[in-house]
Design goal:
The protein is of the alpha/beta class. It has 33 helices and 24 strands. Strands 7-10-11-4-1-12-13-17-18 form a 9-stranded mixed β-sheet. The relative contact order is 0.10. Bound molecules: ligand 26W. It holds the Pfam family Phosphorylase.
Length: 824
């Protein structure tokens, strides 16, 4: 029998207040008389975490006792955002806390606002991992996340003179949500060499020895489910020098610099998140991070399994490991190494276990994002793993040769080793060969990987190794938490909050789409959310925007394939059109606020130039007295999870306009629609399934289809296209200096010019502009717009991360939930 969450509850507001005051006065050593909002946040967080940890302990005890199969989600990124609000809602204590701290003179919203984001991720992949943790906990699956405890998360973005400037994000000053486990440490080896020796049975065995050792220390983060006593664990590893604080011999000899250096080298491993999204940099430190994290996690998983004294043959019945992209692929040779070199299993038995344990999710088809590691680098850093990878490849190629005799081309196409200068290890190929299932993250994407980048593996393994699990988002954070008014309104219509656990119930909203009181309230809530965002924009940029204007939003990492450049070119087109109009004509124009947000990878010059163009256009347009409220262009600095929670509920229309076939799924598209925003988008990623679910009359689709992209690119390469005339006009105006020194933007203009235009901006521009005109027309028909919004939300049930997790559990992990016994 399920019980409502109790372990995290406060029996009364007085009980909460007592613990709050105790923490403020003792843990924080502050007086209640000068307690500010930061103190109120800290006191609340500490009081809540005491409760969380009881649930966490109870859950872990039960998981150990029941000894069911667990899933381990290995991800280099967990983009958690803030915890307090989410934890209060999941534990059902927000109302008690609100009134409790209210009486003490604090507003709960102000306290919540003091928390820093845990920004241990770049974008979609990291946030997906965070949503999956929420769903795993809510659905009572025995599941652990494993990641790195970066000292610095994704950099903070400042805009200085219109340009992005990166500022380090030291976020650990006060983090009440983690528990250091100094007793749980693992020694991780790098470098060294491999020696052959005879073991006690006279068998030749390989030993890896003589390397440098770094210690991994565990930090645990409790992950409470919604409306359940279940509380899972996220274990993050932090690196530390193995030989204590520093080298005493060197210290005593006066060699202070070198005494510290090994410590510093060790700590560097978990120091900083690589800020690249969808681009492989191939740096040695990144490879060190990957092995450090993978080796510590596997050691931990194996140690837990060995405590049960089961035979190795049962390992795949007890353990499923999901590889979040190729970043943890070294786990495959590492487990093979543990089984063969340490546990002395024979190769084939070990390999059978390995492939039954692992599965791999691919998140991108962009060639520049596919990880490759140079063989000399691997040889140096992980000599034994390189041997194992060679052996995996050898046995694999032998099996291919047997099935497709004399097909040399196929052999070189599927080889893990790329015969380049230097040779490289193709991590995606290793991940496929070492897994029993490979999945893409939306239907189109899963089809594309089977017909393009991994097509040869479909021949080798057959189509069944490949599958699709369309991404999802947690409705707890991305509806209930970020848009409480809308969540309450929906609950009122549906007779309760069950839709937060079963999003198919949202379907019940359809019958309210014609109820004028319901519809009016729906639109009032949207307006209130826009007012809230307008206030934030005024406070942070000084620019006043009209909340009745159409809010057009594109927030995501800045990347050419996501085509923010097309959006800003569209804005320029709008501006030029407005300038040509008479005052009379302007009266019929729908006022717009174009809102952008997102970080560029520090080394991605073109992305930074796109940001510069957006801010330059804003400077001109926002200060043009002729334009006034008809057009405003806003760049929101430092887009992150907590800002997304403010921005997403305030959109009328959001842009998901990647070149067809390039965005694996997208997940913000789902967030915007479930919050009642409409979207303009290409036939790409999950947009296609969103259209299927909500109906094509409720979405603004435009642009080339994935199947024609190759042909269009071909035409560009051979000079068979001319730039779209509307785009040409836009480029000419940039060239003429309308937005400042044109040379600033020359590389960007060049990238879309004839002969190039890899992302097909010119091909799609005409239909993009036409579609925006349709958006304007639709927006003034308020009743129809509201209807589209409501019908869309009603049909978004499919995009819950709960559905995605249930699919993984059933089709990939073979995992059952663990019904918790009630606490005494
Ligand atoms: C090696 C550098 C690197 C770093 C990050 C390569 C690739 C990545 C990620 C896989 C990029 C990423 O976040 N992909 C996004 O994953 C989301 C979750 O599945 C999808 O919704 C997005 O479409 C996809 O771009």
């Amino acid at each position: 029998m399920w019980r409502k969450f109790e372990a995290g509850e406060f029996k009364s507001k007085e009980e909460f207040q007592k613990e709050f005051v105790r923490h403020v006065e003792t843990t924080l050593a502050r007086s209640m008389y000068n307690c500010d909002d930061v103190g109120a946040y800290s006191g609340t967080a500490l009081a809540l975490r005491d409760r969380l940890i009881v649930a966490w302990n109870h859950t872990q005890q039960q998981q150990t006792f029941r000894d069911q199969k667990r899933v381990y989600y290995l991800s280099l990124e967990f983009l958690m955002g803030r915890t307090l609000d989410n934890a209060m809602l999941n534990c059902g204590v927000k109302d008690v806390v609100r009134s409790g701290i209210g009486e003490l003179g604090f507003r709960i919203e102000d306290a919540i606002d003091q928390e820093r984001d845990a920004a241990l991720g770049n974008g979609g992949l990291g946030r997906l991992a965070a949503c999956f943790l929420d769903s795993l906990a809510t659905l009572n699956f025995p599941a652990w996340g494993y990641g790195l405890r970066y000292k610095y998360g994704i950099f903070k973005q400042e805009i200085v003179d219109g340009y992005q400037v990166e500022v380090p994000d030291y976020w650990l000053d006060f983090n009440p949500w983690e528990f250091p486990r100094h007793d749980i440490s693992v020694d991780i080896m790098f470098y060294g060499g491999v020696r052959e020796k005879l073991d006690e049975n006279g068998k030749r065995v390989k030993v890896w020895e003589g390397g440098e050792i770094v210690q991994a220390i565990a930090f645990d983060v409790p992950i409470p489910g919604y409306d359940t006593a279940n509380c899972n664990n996220l274990r993050l590893w932090s690196s530390k020098a193995a030989n204590g604080e520093f080298d005493f011999q060197k210290f005593n000899a006066g060699d202070y610099d070198n005494a510290m250096s090994s410590q510093q080298r060790a700590e560097t491993i978990s120091a900083v998140l690589y800020p690249n999204d969808n681009i492989d940099s191939g740096k040695e430190l990144r490879l060190k991070q990957q092995y450090f994290w993978v080796a510590a996690s596997l050691y931990d998983i194996v140690r837990r399994f060995k405590k049960t004294h089961r035979p190795w043959s049962e390992f795949p019945d007890q353990v499923a490991i999901q590889l979040n992209d190729t970043h943890p692929t070294l786990a495959i040779p590492e487990l093979q190494r543990i089984l063969v070199d340490i546990e002395k299993l024979d190769w084939d038995t070990a390999w059978d276990i390995v492939t039954r344990v692992f599965s791999y999710t691919n998140h991108t088809v962009l060639p520049e994002a596919l990880e490759k590691w140079s063989v000399p680098l691997l040889q140096h850093l992980l000599p034994r793993h390189l041997q194992i990878i060679y052996d995996i490849n050898l046995f694999f190629l032998q099996s291919v040769e047997k099935k497709f005799p004399k097909d040399r081309e196929l052999l070189s196409a599927v080889s893990i080793i790329e015969e380049s200068q230097p040779q490289c290890i193709r991590m995606a190929y290793l991940a496929i060969i070492g897994s029993h299932k490979v999945n893409g993250v939306a239907e189109l994407h899963s089809d594309l990987i089977k017909t393009t980048i991994f097509k040869d593996f479909v021949r080798v393994f057959g189509p069944d190794r490949f599958t699709n699990v369309t991404n999802g988002i947690t409705p707890r954070r991305w509806l209930h938490q970020c848009n409480p008014k809308l969540s309450d309104h929906i609950a009122h219509a549906l007779g309760g909050y069950d839709f937060l656990k079963d999003t198919s119930l949202l379907k019940g909203l359809e019958k309210w789409a014609d109820d004028s009181a319901f519809v009016d309230e729906w639109m009032d809530i949207k307006l209130a959310n826009k007012v809230r965002l307008a206030r934030f924009i005024k406070d942070t940029t000084g620019i006043a925007v009209n909340p009745h204007a159409l809010f057009d939003i594109q927030v995501k990492r800045i990347h050419e394939y996501k085509r923010q450049q097309m959006n800003i070119f569209g804005v320029i087109h709008r501006y030029l059109s407005l300038k040509k109009m008479s005052p009379e004509e302007r009266k019929s124009v729908v006022p717009r606020v174009s809102i952008f947000g997102g970080k560029a990878a520090p080394g991605y010059w073109m992305a930074k130039t796109i940001i510069r163009l957006i801010t330059a256009v804003g400077d001109v347009v926002n200060n043009d007295p002729e334009i006034g409220d008809l057009l405003k262009v806003i760049f929101i600095e430092d887009y992150n999870v907590s800002k997304a929670e403010l921005i997403v509920p305030a959109s009328d229309i959001s842009e998901h306009i990647s070149t067809a076939g390039t965005e694996a799924s997208g997940t913000s598209n789902m967030k915007f629609v479930i919050n009642g925003g409409l979207i303009i988008g290409t036939c790409d990623g999950a947009n296609i399934e969103i259209t299927r679910e909500i109906g094509e009359e409720n979405i603004f689709l435009f642009g080339a289809l994935a199947e024609s992209v190759e042909e269009l690119r071909f035409a560009h390469r051979y000079g068979k296209t001319e730039m779209d005339p509307l785009l040409k006009e836009v480029c000419d105006s940039i060239e003429a200096g309308t937005f400042g020194d044109a040379s600033t933007f020359s590389s960007l203009l060049h990238s879309v010019a004839e002969g190039g235009d890899y992302y097909l901006v010119s091909d799609d521009f005409g239909s993009y502009i036409k579609t925006h005109a349709l958006v304007d027309e639709a927006f003034v028909k308020k009743d129809e717009w509201a209807r589209s919004s409501i019908i869309s939300v009603a049909n978004m049930g499919f995009f819950s991360a709960d559905r995605a997790i249930l699919e993984y559990a059933e089709t990939i992990w073979n995992l059952e939930p663990l019904p918790l016994e009630a606490l005494d």
